[in-house]
Amino acid sequence: MPSGVSRTRRQAGSCRPLAALPLSEADEASAAILQGPNRHDAAIDLEHGLVLVALGRDVEASEVSTRSASQAAPSGATATGP
């Protein structure tokens, strides 16, 4: 069974960002349950930001991408696109 992030990436990459949006939102909700409130997963945030960009929701995408980068920084990870 593919991970949520890869499933979301396939939908967004197949020119179906509207189909990817609910998957991306579900990925975020699952991560919030696992990690607790006010914590975010950098990879999931990055994917969600890419979906928002594909939908032309640039302001939201910028906020989510910034959050992804700030979450990745403390761990030494880098948030880069596909």
The number of domains: 1
Summed over residues and divided by their number, the pLDDT gives a mean of 76
Radius of gyration based on Cα positions? 12 Å
What is the count of DSSP helices, taking H or I runs of 4+ residues? Answer: 4
Tell me about this structure.
- By secondary structure, the protein is an all-alpha fold.
- The protein has one domain.
- It has helices at 4-13, 17-35, 42-54, 58-75.
- Helix 1 packs antiparallel against helix 2 and helix 3 (42-54) runs antiparallel to helix 4 (58-75).
- The radius of gyration is 12 Å and the shape is globular.
- The protein starts with a helix and ends in a 7-residue tail after the last helix.
- The model has no long low-confidence stretch (mean pLDDT 76).
Features:
single chain; 82 residues; mainly alpha; 4 helices; 0% strand; globular
